[in-house]
Design brief:
It is built from 10 helices and 16 strands. By secondary structure, the chain is of the alpha/beta class. The chain has 2 domains: 109 residues, Nucleotidyltransferase, domain 5 (2-Layer Sandwich), CATH 3.30.420; 215 residues, 2-Layer Sandwich (Nucleotidyltransferase, domain 5). Strands 2, 3, 4, 5, 6 and 9 form a 6-stranded mixed beta sheet that branches. It has a 6-stranded mixed beta sheet with strand order 12-11-10-13-15-14, sandwiched between helices. It is globular.
Length: 367
């Protein structure tokens, strides 16, 4: 874990940030409670042309700096960028969706020289967990315990983003865990029972594959290359008709089973107070959660071999209240709450990037 230095009180600094997609880069800045620009600066990622991609990164950050000049100079740039990467060094490795980054691109050094400010780059799953802990569910629920006069404190959160892949991060006592080589918490890369990496099932592409398998001889009801296939499959599972609708429901059940497999690994290894789910497939949490929670709980019955944790669906008011209740029994008090993020995924990541920058700079700007 990276331990921050002693923070110093200061007015909210301005931090440049970025949503780095494979098609476009969306630039903005954060100051205090949120994003500064209503509409960020959007430039093509140019993922097949490294000089043009780097030029657009520099141009985008400089334009945000110009638009926010009245707020003072930026203190740093902090953002998530695809990996594999050596995030501590700010060096980007080979990227599948941006082949121009084909080796060891010293992105942080390039931007630091061009912008004249410190540059911090991290994995999106790590920053999502950081944002959810600092500004989302962990802060909210811990505050509720304090308001009730409880001596119990919530200090740790595992964040999981499920979309193109399965990103994960872990924060404990305000410190983000990234591992020795920037690959900590890569639960999605672990093997599932079918021999594939878990994220080959728990992802948008995995859902489409499961749906095809469940269809069997029934024709695929959508154009194979149309955008938004997971959303179409979800709509079918919620209220569709015909032979494809039951296949959609079964696909989400299988997705939930695979998600439970990874949840159990994370919960047993890390013992987090909370697990928070985000990403594109979080929009279908109503379809995934019932099976995921049922399967996860079945592996957390009393017994030394499978762990002692009691799991709670924080989207259910009764379970949420039980999670927050103080217990007199030691074993009854071993709880982990599971929730869909109330922050948008992009917002949580950007807020996590902001918090990481403040801590790296030794600045205290509590939300």
């Amino acid at each position: 874990m990276t331990t921050p230095g002693n923070p110093r009180a200061t007015p909210d600094p301005l931090i440049l940030t970025l949503d780095a997609g494979g098609t476009n880069f969306v630039f903005n800045a954060i100051k205090g409670s949120g994003l500064v620009l209503d509409a960020g600066v959007v430039l093509p990622a140019e993922g097949r042309d490294l000089p043009r991609s780097l030029a657009n990164l520099i141009r985008g950050f400089r334009e945000v700096g110009e638009r926010t000049r009245g707020l003072g100079p930026p203190a740093a740039a902090s953002f998530a960028f695809p990996g594999p990467a050596d995030y501590r060094a700010g060096v980007i490795g080979e990227l599948e969706n941006m082949p121009a980054y084909g080796g060891a691109v010293p992105l942080a050094a390039v931007l630091r020289e061009a912008l004249g400010v410190p540059v911090f780059i991290n994995n999106d799953g790590d920053l999502f967990a950081c944002g959810a802990a600092r500004y989302g569910e962990l802060r909210e629920l811990d505050g509720e315990l304090r308001a009730r006069g409880s001596a119990r404190r919530l200090t740790s959160l595992a964040g999981m983003t499920i979309g193109t892949g399965w990103g994960c991060g872990f924060v404990a006592d305000g410190v983000m865990f990234i591992g020795s080589s920037s690959t900590g918490m890569e639960i999605g890369a672990c093997p599932y029972i079918d021999g594939r990496a878990i994220e080959e099932t728990v992802s948008a592409g995995g859902l489409v594959r499961l749906f095809r398998e469940e269809l069997g001889p029934t024709p695929f009801p959508f154009d194979a290359d149309e955008p938004g296939l997971p959303e179409r499959i979800a709509a079918l599972a919620r209220g569709g008709r015909g032979a494809a609708a039951p296949a959609a429901e079964r696909a989400f059940r299988r997705l939930g089973e695979a998600l439970a497999f990874g949840l159990n690994w994370a919960i047993d290894l890390l013992d987090p107070d909370l697990v928070v789910i985000g990403g594109g497939l979080a929009g279908a949490w109503d379809l995934t959660a019932p099976r995921a929670l049922a399967c996860a709980r079945s592996a957390h019955v009393s017994g030394r071999a499978r762990g002692y944790k009691r799991l709670f669906d924080l989207g259910d008011e009764v379970e949420r209240e039980e999670f927050l209740r103080d217990e007199t029994s030691v074993m009854e008090g071993k709880k982990t709450g599971i929730a869909r993020s109330r922050l948008g995924t992009a917002e949580a990541i950007m807020r996590g990037a902001y918090d990481f920058a403040l801590r790296a700079l030794g600045i205290d700007a509590a939300p």
